[in-house]
Records
---
Amino acid sequence: MPPSDVSLPAPAVEEAVERVSFAGGRETLTRAVAVETPINIVYAPIPFAVMMCTPQDLEDFAIGFSFTEGIIDSIADVRSVHVEEDDAQRGIKLVVSLAGDKMQRHLARGRNISGRTGCGVCGIDDLSAMPCAKPIAAAPFMLTNAAMTRALDELVERQSLGARTGATHAAAWCDRAGGVQAVREDVGRHNALDKLIGHLLREKASPAEGFFVITSRCSFEMLEKVAAFGARAVVAISAPTSLAVERARAHGVTLVALARNGGALVFNGAENLAAEERHEG
């Protein structure tokens, strides 16, 4: 799937601001501001969702979103993704062409999303339509303290847009040793994870060979996306919600949260953490 040749807006813009000291005094400077753009996801020719998104890695986003929404089952279900400018609406269209059977299944679902930034379950009209990943049959993933420490440290260095703007979330895919293999950023936490999952699907990455790290809170739909991809562990820098913990137990996902300042809380799967032995000289 070749990258689009559409000229996308920059993911950040420079704005003139006034720095004000509460003790008195002010100065004029420039500040990078994260760009938030309406992205219309269209399953040709029918619009499905409008998400507020950072305009980068959009092909990854289209694929990851389609996968975690259950519209596709694999990358093979996507024939093409075209990025189109929509000048009239001051936004961008992602036109996704699906395999025939998947398009028919999609048309039968009837869910539309009019999105906020990283909206979770907007558009469903019944509680039975709440997302729920398929059960994971893979073996438990063993996390080590060293792997989590390395992943958290490397992720800080890889958040280039977040460092510039202070306004974006990040999701990282890490190998068993904690080495960060890929990072995606976005103003929406769900979008960042969808972008990353889309990239992993395109790269045919094995869910059994790594774990996710997210910079946001771990709400239930974030856990559902992790489980849908097939990963067995997620480390969140912020806290989980009660439903995320419930879903982690149901799907057998190791959930580590509030991972900061040299420690973390394990909300599910403590038996899958292997602390290295310390050898004192």
---
Amino acid sequence: MVKTLIIMGHNIFVSYKYKDKNVRQIPDITPYTWGRDYVDLLEQLLPDNGQVYCGEKGDDDLSDKSDDYIYNHLKKMIWPTTCTIVLISAGMKKPSSYDKSQWIPWEIYYSMREITTDRGTSHRNGIVGVVVPDKNGSYDFAISQGTCCDSPCRIIHNNWMFNILKKNMFNIRKSNTYRCDNGDTIWRGECSYISLVKWDDFIKDINYYIEKAEEKKDHWENYDLHISVNAY
């Protein structure tokens, strides 16, 4: 699902799972909170001059839709944007469905491509993955704290995610890594084109994370980009 926002001079495209109920309850939202409610909350946290454009309002299956249909549906919403926020929630992916039959992979795909409309051509977007806590308030399904080293580190759990997401993590061409005491690889710096941040950290300084994503967009050649919606 999508929503396009304008924040502090940045045009923002938001990709999310509309009906994911495995998210932390937002106060005053009854009887339960959906992924869509986090988009509404994000809108409230943006500056007053933010302008909002709504996209899809459901979770349509795309199995019977052509690539042209999907492209024509998304291009006018993505064209004016420079950064994409992907809300990563525990139930964002239907495990029994192909990636290509779900909206989020296509939204990331077209965010990473040049988009041409009758208004001209726009370049690829910077992308930041914002992890929404699950219904128990935990981020561990995507980000957990490592305890194997003396220095603090994060463990990213991306095996369950869409292919286009996980293949654009840890994909910097010139990596800066070292081995932990237990043999795991520790990555330093901005090692992923699509970096992950916890929702609670993101909303403390939204502009900071958007600007970081846009800096990587401007230096995309430093990353081995995976721009494909796979069938699995």
---
Amino acid sequence: MEPIKPVTPPGSLFWRIIHFPLLLIIIGMVMVIGPEILVSMAVRFVMHPHGPLGSLITGLCATAAAVIGYTVFVRFVERRPAVSEFAAPGWPKELGAGLLTGFLLFSLVVAVIALLGGYHVIGEHPATVLFPVLALSLVSGVGEEIVVRGIIFRLVESSLGTWIALIVSAALFGAGHLGNQHSGLLPAVAIALEAGIMLAALYMLTRRLWAAIGLHAAWNFTQGGIYGIAVSGGAVDGVLIPRISGPDLLTGGAFGAESSLPAILICTVFGVVVTAIAWRRGRFVKPFWARSR
């Protein structure tokens, strides 16, 4: 299939430079992450939101800023007439499928850990603990998918093809978690394998961001908000209060179940299956040197 590329006016050296993939990735990241951070700071400064509901308001505003920043980037920097990654027809089905898949995948991971003796429920929190986790899930689900899949994966793919884009985006996604609390080589590799592959595969299959956003957000929300497990190294309160015990390879340790062996196996297999489906449906892009032939 043909890549989703910027529209470069013929004969324009300026736009040829701007549309060089690496420079375009940098510009896109600045235009998405910058507004996301600035709006979060502005909301906290102006509204002084406190408590669980305040964190949700801040998260919603930051998420909206990321989407608006990406839209401006696509329309005025890439010069594309429409943001096809957020095309409206069929979006509830794709978003809903992603949300349900994220919930089921992580519930399966927790079930396996529980069956092997690593997870036990010892209490409950009130439902208000869900607001901060929902805010976290929205910001990470929308913001990270726009940056990693909408910008990095798509623009690398438009030049170097799908296979290289998959490797690069997954590796960067894993490496991006190295700075998290309780992180290390194993959590970074786990994130690259399980999330890096399956989220890119959903984008490849649909050529839109709805399903990947849904899975990413539901994964984080289910992990932290429902099962009370640390999300990428950050401790959160969930509706269920767990006692987690056993080797880190089983439970993921302080980083969370994302770096556990059950998560690596289950989610990597899921990602590989979706990648194979995308391949069979002709959703892969050839590198520029193969397209030129």
---
Amino acid sequence: MTKRTISSAHDRIDGLEKEIIAIKTEVKIQFKDLFSRVKRMEGIMIATTGSIIALLLAVLTKMG
């Protein structure tokens, strides 16, 4: 078993800091990608809703 000293603790903490920074960067990239996907889905849903409303109005005007 290795001796645990204050300097070894600092080294481990520095290693953890680098890992945390890498994880934060990866999460940031993933959230940016997720946000763009949600935005694209939102656009598709708005366009679909608009076309459905237009079709319903066309049917109503032809019936009346």
